[in-house]
Design a protein that fits this description.
Belongs to the uricase family. The chain has six helices and eleven strands. By secondary structure, the chain is α+β, with helices and mostly antiparallel strands. It folds into two domains: about 130 residues, Urate Oxidase; about 140 residues, Urate Oxidase, CATH 3.10.270.
């Protein structure tokens, strides 16, 4: 049981310069006894309102240096404060506020919300077990208008999809990775590196791109790029929900439409998912 959707803004001031972190937190506990379920005995139950207040107090006292550190602080607090807690899991996601710049100068107290992917993390721990940390990015919308196709696929009497060697590749990406047991990582730096790998692998070189024969290959290319360049990542899951575009037939309007006006196909949509892990992590 636990408390979901604890939303708040943490404002930190250093002289005239302000810093903001707006987050949403979900914290769940499993207790050493199930007596509240079986017998209606609530003597060990930590009220969810108390859980909410603990999260707010920790934000006040410790700040939010990184999402991962804040999630770890919450887990450690419940494990060290309440002996009846057998397991704790905390999820934290961030509202993408970025500092506003005017003529190249960073504003001291103004921000803009830029929805270019939502950062999130999870931390979980069992009693007498390691603190495990996950991180990720979701709702990251990506598109490239060429250098993508889909050919040579299996066909039978139900196949109506034509082969294409030049199409728009567009999708909404979810990426989650595991660090294994918690270490003293620079979580901000790692998250930025992973995001850069995603963009690099999706798009290819800036002057020419890189051909994608399928959504599946794009997912694999993203994962392999991250594992090759970010050594701290042990397991990585990527889900790419596809958005398809159809070319509008304008013959009745007396116009030739050479893939210049397209409409998105809202539903149904495809989805590709894959999880990769380092061999040494699996052997461990």
């Amino acid at each position: 049981y636990g408390k979901n959707t604890i939303k708040f803004l943490r404002l930190h001031k250093e002289g005239k310069k302000h810093f903001v972190k707006e987050v949403e937190v979900c914290t769940h506990l499993r207790l050493t006894s199930a007596q509240e379920y079986l017998d209606g005995n609530n003597s060990l139950v930590i009220p969810t309102d108390t859980m909410k207040n603990i999260v707010l107090v920790l934000a006040k006292k410790n700040g939010i240096p990184t999402l991962e550190q804040f999630a770890m602080d919450i887990c450690k607090h419940f494990m060290t404060t309440f002996c009846q807690v057998a397991y704790v899991k905390t999820y934290v996601q961030e509202v993408p506020w970025q500092r506003l710049h005017e003529n190249g100068v960073a504003h001291v107290h103004s921000f803009i919300c830029v929805p270019d992917g939502i950062r999130f993390c999870e931390a979980e721990q069992c009693r007498n077990g390691p603190l495990v940390v996950f991180a990720g990015i979701k709702d990251l919308k990506l598109m490239k208008t060429t250098q993508s196709g889909f050919e040579g696929f299996y066909k039978n009497e139900h196949t109506t999809l034509p082969e294409r060697n030049d199409r728009i590749l567009c999708g909404e990406l979810f990426c989650k990775w595991s660090y294994g047991e918690c270490s003293d990582f620079d979580f901000d730096c790692i998250w930025t590196k992973v995001r850069e790998c995603i963009l690099e692998a999706f798009s290819g070189p800036p002057d020419c791109g890189e051909y994608s024969p399928s959504y599946q290959k794009t997912v694999n290319r993203i994962q392999m790029c991250i594992l090759s360049k970010v050594s701290q990542v042990q397991v990585i899951e990527v889900i790419l929900n596809n958005t398809f575009y159809n070319v509008v037939d304008m013959k009745n309007l007396g116009l030739t439409n050479d893939k210049e006006v397209l409409v998105p196909v809202e539903a149904p949509y495809g989805s590709c998912a894959c999880t990769l892990a380092r061999k040494k992590f699996l052997e461990a």
